[in-house]
Design a protein that fits this description.
Elements (H helix, E strand, L loop, with lengths): L11 E5 L7 E4 L3 E6 L4 E2 L2 E2 L1 E8 L3 E9 L9 E7 L8 E7 L4 E6 L7 E4 L6 E7 L2 E6 L2 E2 L4 E2 L6 E8 L7 E11 L17 E9 L5 E7 L4 E5 L4 E6 L2 E6 L6 E3 L12 E2 L5 E6 L8 E6 L6 E2 L6 E6 L5 E8 L2 E8 L6 E2 L7 E6 L5 E6 L6 E6 L6 E4 L4 E7 L5 E7 L10 E9 L5 E9 L15 E9 L1
Parallel strand pairs: 11-19
Antiparallel strand pairs: 1-6, 2-3, 3-17, 4-5, 6-16, 7-12, 7-17, 8-9, 8-16, 9-10, 10-11, 12-13, 13-14, 13-15, 18-19, 18-40, 20-21, 21-22, 22-23, 24-25, 25-26, 26-27, 28-29, 29-30, 30-31, 32-33, 33-34, 34-35, 36-37, 37-38, 38-39
């Protein structure tokens, strides 16, 4: 669709919100100059200057962005914006370059809601924002900057360039050059429908439980899964059959030697004392998953389960016992076994599937997911065996419960209620339940599923969770 444009590729410009100092915008044939004031683009309302055009459907906006001067406030913002309406409290997403160099994908999911953000792994002056369907992804130098967000839009909406000074008495100016507006492909690729022009990106992320703000730790151009969080603030994850670790703040990736176990799946986790990691590996026993333990610094695996398939999920707080999902005699269930190996004990027998067992921090309960009620839901059972009891009843299909180290929260992954199993390449929600009152809330809506949070991923202080989101671009 071709639109009548009055300022380069855009239709108009205006101040959003009750700014104290009026802004402006111009185009010299190559570059856009936008000047704006405003207290912030944050919380439940915004103040900024906006150069915009109305669009429908999917959109991609890219530009090279720089501030015209050193500026006053380090939190001033030059943004690429997708916005449902022009009211100050409208739903929106933007990719903001801050005065101190920080880049972050910021979004308000509905009018009047609190703004959330995903801090990018790195900064650059070449940034982009893409809307495909209801999902918005930010780009740095043509690659995803981190996770994506769900932002439903109805009908026509606004896309454009914005500046906010973060000081009501100051105006700031940003220069946007090489601005490109295009329509991306509308179909979301899956594992089985990617093309040579499609690249998979995995983003290792953390989310703050109190604020629900997210931070991208690293973006990989390969499949990674299932982070664990160590006591010394590293994240352990699997990729292409091997184990790796990386500082939780980002940095150098380190390979963890697992000897002959070179087909590790996403069911792995740490001993309470932090010296060992349990792995589920499929390089032996005709490809069936077997549980081993390995020194966290690397070494030869020690076999724990005599029988396969077995998929590790939990380690008792006293370090004595492992909990896992296994199939025996054609029936899946929850099992426990001494951490150094020995005789296994079946705790449950599932009609279809019991999975994802993990201990409560006091060691009294094992939480797990089961479809014994029809839809996959969260249950728990006494650690020594007994009658299972339902923890949560929802309309979603809920997987992989993990109780925080302080015992306050239970994290889990929620699929749409009609999804069978825990497949990859789905829209899912990372949720937490307050165990004191049973209330739940969403921390992150993301594209993922299998690999996002299969195993314990709480930070030691219970303030954050680690997970993986995915994108195809």
């Amino acid at each position: 669709m071709t639109l009548l444009t009055t300022i380069g590729a855009f239709e108009d410009h205006q101040d959003i919100g009750p700014v104290r100092v009026a802004g402006d915008a111009s185009f010299d044939g190559e570059r856009y100059t936008v000047t704006g004031s405003g207290y912030n683009m944050w919380f439940d309302r915004d103040e900024f200057h906006f150069l915009w055009k109305r669009v429908e459907g999917d959109i991609a906006l890219e530009a090279a962005v720089e501030f015209a001067a050193a500026g006053v406030d380090p939190h001033r913002k030059a943004c690429l914006v997708i916005r449902q309406a022009l009211e100050p409290d409208a739903a929106y997403a933007d990719f903001a370059l801050h005065g101190d160099g920080l880049t972050s994908l910021q979004y308000r999911a509905e009018p009047g809601a609190i703004t959330r953000e995903i801090q990018a792994t790195r900064s650059s002056t070449r940034i982009g924002i893409v809307r495909r369907g209801d999902r918005v992804t930010a780009l740095v130098d043509g690659r995803p900057s981190g996770g994506s967000v769900l932002l439903p839009m109805s009908g026509a909406y606004y896309v454009g360039l914005a500046v906010c000074s973060h000081d009501v008495d100051v105006v700031e100016t940003a220069i946007f050059s090489d601005v490109r507006i295009s329509s991306p492909e509308t179909s979301e690729p899956t594992l089985y429908s990617t093309t040579s022009a499609t690249t998979l990106y995995s983003t290792l992320e953390t989310v703050d439980v109190a604020s629900a703000d997210r931070r991208a730790v690293h973006v990989f151009d390969r499949w990674i899964e299932a982070p664990n969080w160590t006591a010394d603030d590293r994240l352990v994850y699997n990729s292409e059959g091997l184990l790796y670790s990386m500082p939780a703040t980002g940095g150098e990736e380190k390979h963890i030697d697992t000897g002959f176990a070179t087909k590790c799946n996403n069911d792995h986790g740490l001993s309470p004392d932090g010296t060992r990691v349990a792995i589920s590996d499929q390089s032996q026993d005709d490809g069936a998953s077997v549980i081993y333990t390995v020194p966290l610094d690397g070494g030869e695996p020690k076999r724990i389960t005599a029988h396969a398939p077995s998929y590790w999920h939990g380690w008792s707080p006293d370090g004595s016992t492992l909990a896992y999902c296994a199939e025996r005699d054609g029936a899946y269930g929850i099992f426990v076994i001494p951490a150094d190996g020995g005789e296994e004990t079946r705790l449950t027998t599932a009609r279809h599937l019991d999975d994802g067992p993990d201990y409560s921090p006091d060691g009294k309960w094992i939480y797990f997911n089961s479809d014994r009620s029809g839809r996959m839901q969260i249950w728990r059972i006494p650690a020594g065996g007994g009658e299972p009891e339902r923890v949560l009843e929802t309309g979603t299909a809920d997987w992989f419960p993990h109780v925080s180290p302080d015992g306050r929260w239970m994290a889990f992954i929620a699929y749409d209620g009609d999804v069978d199993g825990h497949p990859r390449d789905h829209d899912v929600a990372l949720q937490v339940m307050d165990l004191s009152d049973g209330t739940t809330r969403v921390l992150a809506e993301l594209f993922g599923g299998q690999g996002t949070m299969n195993v314990p991923s709480w930070s030691p202080d219970s303030s954050r969770l680690a997970f993986v989101s995915y994108a195809y671009l």
